[in-house]
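Dear colleagues,

I hope this message finds you well. In preparation for our joint manuscript, I am sending the Class I SAM-dependent methyltransferase (Devosia neptuniae) sequence together with its predicted structure, so that both groups work from identical material. I would be grateful if you could confirm receipt.
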Amino acid sequence: MKKNLNRARSQSWDAVAHWYAGWTGTNGSRYHRTLAVPLLLELLAPKRGEHIADLGCGPGILAPPIAERGAGFVGVDLSPRLIADARRHHGRVGRFLVGDVTRLPRHADLPEAGFDAACFLLSIQDINPLGEAMTSAARLLKPGGRLAIVMLHPCFRVPRQSGWGWDEGRGLKFRRLDSYLTPLAVPMQSHEAGTTRSYHRPLGAYAEALAAAGLALTGIREVSDLPAQGESKADRRAAGEFPLFLGLRAVKLE
Ligand SMILES: C[S@@+](CC[C@H](N)C(=O)[O-])C[C@H]1O[C@@H](n2cnc3c(N)ncnc32)[C@H](O)[C@@H]1O
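The corresponding structure tokens are as follows:
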């Protein structure tokens, strides 16, 4: 685990591409379909004729719902394998490019100030440095353009530093948090040949990075996990109290 994240650069998910694309399937995982994608679409509010960039698009599961709303879609990801997968399944409804969103390549499909909206769908916590990713997003947006971000809630879901506990005396399921303010680069469970890294930053770091990139925060949504079958009352209460996802909406200042 690293304490100073400033110089760590995020990695492509190529080594785990087969596993990840299998987990999401063509239309997204259960979490994508039930929570993350509906939240992102609510924040992004794509409209007919708009141009939308998906940063860290992975296998491109966001392209079909954006295309259904009549908007153009460009997805960018560092993983050539995931981009190949995205093109195979969604190439008819979107364009997909291999690229690092912390230092975007010059490309005719990524015109500066060429997009009405941009998003990070469950990708911002896998991307570092954060400030460079936000600057790239701002650079792609037209003045007044929207940015939507959906991520695991950084106040309650800190990889390896948070979890559930049971208070026997009170008969209460509680959320335990062992650290929060310290930014962390956390190696995640290996799948296939690879390990990925997730970057924890406190909520204030996101607000600061948005402001530094000239993006004004205009909305926050906190979403609970869906109830699972056979859950106890204590499980349901705890799941309802501590949100799983955080959604942020920002606008590029004119
Ligand atoms: C958890 S996956 C999310 C993918 C997709 N948005 C989804 O919801 O299925 C995170 C993605 O971020 C990508 N990524 C990490 N660092 C990146 C960077 N610097 N530039 C572009 N993509 C990056 C990885 O390759 C991976 O596909």
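For the figure legend, we might mention the following. The mean pLDDT is 93. Residues 10, 12-13, 24, 56-59, 61, 76-79, 82, 100-102, 121-123, 126-127 surround S-adenosylmethionine (CB under 6 Å).

With kind regards,
E.M.
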